[in-house]
Design a protein that fits this description.
With about 375 residues, this protein is mainly β. It is built from no helices and 37 strands. The strands form 9 sheets. Strands 1-10-9-8-7 form a 5-stranded antiparallel sheet, with no helix packed on it. Strands 2-35-36-37-4 form a 5-stranded antiparallel sheet, with no helix packed on it. The chain has a 5-stranded mixed sheet with strand order 3-34-33-32-31, with no helix packed on it. The relative contact order is 0.17.
Length: about 375
């Protein structure tokens, strides 16, 4: 299948958050206001075949632990596309649905047909996309994760309140579907970008629980999960899943030390290595295998992400963007209409994606210096 190439400049993505513009800033309990400077962002259009990108989902791809490129998908008014990002180029191919991790050898697609919701599983080749109906439901279906490329394949999905796991031990020729123990939408999840595992955490009454699913789980008989120190109070998902509990603890799943604090913790931002934790007593900690004192800049960000140990924040207010990086606050002109933003991490480089009014304004991106 041929690829079209769009010259970019460090377009990025990890599992980052997308939020609506924030209210005016009103400093937080800890941290001091960084020095303010002024500069301009170098905005570039984010488009495919001259159509602005409307939705963006990206997944980092690694080989032997080394970052190679960004995979993922984008949607425009013309359709859906699979993405292949490198430092200065974006390549895309027309695509349908969502591809498996780590290599995208099989895909899923969810669509509505009348009053029914249909989940399909399939593959693609030079002849196109080949999908077969896998599940039909009366309630909306959401695919949470799909991992495994060879013999073992695992699909985690949700039908309304009910969570399911489908697994195959013969490269997708036959599937077995079983219920998972959690229910509802308040389940935290994170998928390792290398397709090694899926981490899930939820509350079961007064108890918190978590579950690790790997491709080898295709042969598992039960999926009961393990106990958290207490009920889950908040969480952060960005390649790994970090959870805080009512027992004043925070930990990284599926592996990591349990950190205990003197007051209730809130996980402000995270990545696969670190979590920035704000405590109710006004202090902050940066946690990995150990925790150390940290500072959270003042402000109420519209979007933020933790890049390595640095919290990058973007506040939208009064036609300006106030961006804090490495403790320095810089104000920029918005450069056009911004309805919503994404802040993405391209192997350590932050990139801001700005969406305008659909059908009226371009979608833009800028590398944050």
């Amino acid at each position: 299948m041929s690829r079209w190439v769009l010259g970019l400049c460090l377009l990025v993505a990890c599992s980052s958050r997308e939020q609506q513009p924030a209210k005016k800033s009103s400093g937080s309990a800890q941290g001091s206001a960084p020095a303010t400077t002024r500069a301009k962002l170098d905005w570039k259009p984010l488009e495919i075949e001259k159509q602005p990108v409307q939705q963006l989902r990206a997944e980092p791809k690694y080989s032997d632990g080394t970052f190679i490129y960004m995979g993922g998908s984008a949607t425009t008014a013309s359709g859906s596309y699979g993405l292949f990002w490198k430092l200065e180029n974006l390549e895309w191919v027309p695509d349908v649905g969502r591809r498996s991790l780590p290599n995208g050898s099989w895909l899923t697609n969810v669509e509505s047909q009348g009053e029914k919701f249909v989940l399909s599983i399939g593959s693609s080749d030079a002849g196109g996309v080949h999908l077969s109906t896998f599940q039909t439901a009366d309630e909306p279906i959401e695919v949470i994760a799909q991992i495994g490329e060879l013999r073992f394949r695992v699909l985690v999905f949700r039908e309304g309140e009910r969570w399911r796991i489908a697994r195959s031990t013969d490269e997708g020729a036959h599937w077995k579907t079983d219920p998972l123990p959690m229910k509802g939408a308040n389940v935290a999840s994170a998928v390792d970008p290398s397709g090694l595992h899926v981490a899930l955490a939820w509350n079961d009454g007064e108890k918190g629980r978590w579950l690790r699913i790997r491709d080898e789980s295709a042969e598992a008989r039960t999926f009961d999960g393990e106990a958290l120190p207490g009920t889950m109070t908040n969480n952060c998902a960005n390649e790994m899943l970090w959870v805080a509990t009512a027992k004043n603890t925070a930990q990284r799943l599926p592996y990591g030390e349990v950190h205990t604090f003197p007051s209730p913790p809130t996980i402000v931002a995270c990545n696969s290595d670190y979590a920035l934790v704000k405590l109710a007593d006004g202090s902050a900690k940066l946690c990995s295998f150990e925790c150390k004192p940290a500072t959270i800049p003042n402000g109420e960000p519209s979007v933020q992400t933790l890049i390595d140990e640095d919290l990058v924040m973007v506040e939208q207010r009064g036609g300006a963007l106030a961006i804090t990086r490495k403790g320095v606050r810089t104000e920029y002109d918005e450069g056009g209409v911004i309805q919503r933003m994404q802040l993405l991490d391209f192997d350590g480089t932050p990139v801001l994606v700005a969406y305008g009014r659909e059908g009226l304004d371009p979608t833009r991106f800028a590398v944050i210096p």
